[in-house]
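Appendix B, record 7
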Amino acid sequence: MSGWIKIGVEFIKALPGQWKGSSDPNAPSEIVDTMAEEAPRADSVAVGDESQIGVTAEDSVNEQEIARRREIVRQFFNDFWVSAEDKPRTFAERLDRAEGHINERLAARGETWQLDAASRKQFGLPPHKIRLD
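Structure tokens (predicted):
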């Protein structure tokens, strides 16, 4: 449990560094560098337009955040299938059927991301299985 607290604290400390005016949203070195720094004073934070802030925050997700999100998906996936009797044979099919449930739980929890094709790829999960019904 203390490991999750440490990850949460490090993630929160990394957030101020994401708004330091980087023009490259895929530069993870800024996040790593800022984890050791103290949070900047309010008057030293560069303010940009909101569309840039949203893109930067989502595009520069660090490895700890990816691990946190994978764990959330795993938990919601297991919750969905724990009492099911008739389960599909493959993990990909199970993930496809659980995706709506997972996304509902993410939204209810206040997460700003969803399980979709991009996040599946980022987490190393199988893509949607194409159904030919």
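Remarks on this record: The CA atoms of residues 93 and 133 lie 14 Å apart. Confidence is low (pLDDT under 50) at residues 18-56.
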